[in-house]
Amino acid sequence: MSGSVIQVSDNLYIISTELLNTKNWLSTYLIIGDKGGMLIDPGPSVNIEALMEIINEEFSNIKIKYLGATHIHIDHGGGLGNLAKLLGDVKIFVHPRGVKHLVDPTRLWEASIEVLGDIALFFGKPQHIESSKIVGLEDNSGVDLGGITVRAIHTPGHAPHHISYVVEPFNILLAGDALANLYEGRVYPVTVPPFNFPEYLKSINKVASLNYDIISVAHFGYVKDNPDVFLQRVKDKAIAWASTISDLIRNGYDRPESIYDKLLEEDLELKFIVKFREKYKMFEGASYRAVLGMYQSIRELMKSL
Ligand SMILES: [Zn+2]
Fold it and tell me: Which CATH fold topology does 3-304 show?
């Protein structure tokens, strides 16, 4: 088996493959109810074979009947089509605004190439999915897995169609990219374009008001002790980025590259993460894209004031 399985609670696991030799790059969730298993964020098309290898080895008695994605960005949901073909009889859950992009992934694929470049080609093109298999989840609606309910909490900002999932009765939030990246205890905002800063802040506040016991993020892992402290750090960090970037814009900085360099000088957590991930091709340009998304959102906001 090439990858890892982490048990978060009864019937809830984080599975991670080692795509491009990268450890712990994406939290894929397996939730096991009496009616069957649900996989959330299976990753891109290229990930599916390795993921299913782990599942067949470690969970051979579980029938996966439900699939979901926190959002349809191809590093999270790009493999849903391949998986649906492989598994046959499954229902797929996403935000209502994501449904049409799963049925016809043309625009999603074009946008992925535009934002991610080469890495999108490596991840692979999402496959078309029949609309009869897809269910759009409204805010607060749940998927009953039998003894466990997976409930959608709309958390836009990172993407307008972003959902976090609460696993009940455990009071665990699977936050996808709604909050932050977490590596080696360091955080940075997940703000790739097209990013919406005000919506993102609202979503962080919404999550904070709902008092979860455990919060998991897509990249990577979960926070068990004092998730409220984690949320405050996430919020402080996003606000610090926004304020540094707006100051730089006011001082005449108009190239995202030089704004990125400045932020890297100031933000030691970001500097650490960039260094930590340097050797992995998977993360090439990822932190720059995050700063670019925040810059674009702040620039729009400043224009509208
Ligand atoms: Zn994303």
Answer: Metallo-beta-lactamase; Chain A (3.60.15)
Ligand 1 centre to CA of 115 (Å) is 11
> What tokens were used for 29?
């969730």
- Tell me the domain boundaries of the chain: 3-304
pLDDT tens sequence across 94-141: 999 999 999 999 999 999 999 999 999 999 999 999 999 999 999 999
Cα 219 to middle of ligand 1, angstroms: 10
Query: Could you give the CA distance from residue 230 to residue 228 in angstroms, rounded to a whole number?
Result: 5
- 133-145: pLDDT as tens digits: 999 999 999 999 9
Q: Which residues lie at CB < 5 A from ion ligand 1? A: 73, 177
CB atoms within 10 A of CB 301: 14
Ligand 1 center from residue 285 Cα (angstroms)? 14
Measure the CA dihedral 147/129/17/274, to 10°. Answer: -110
Tokens of 208: 């904070």
CA of residue 192 to ligand 1 center, whole Å: 7
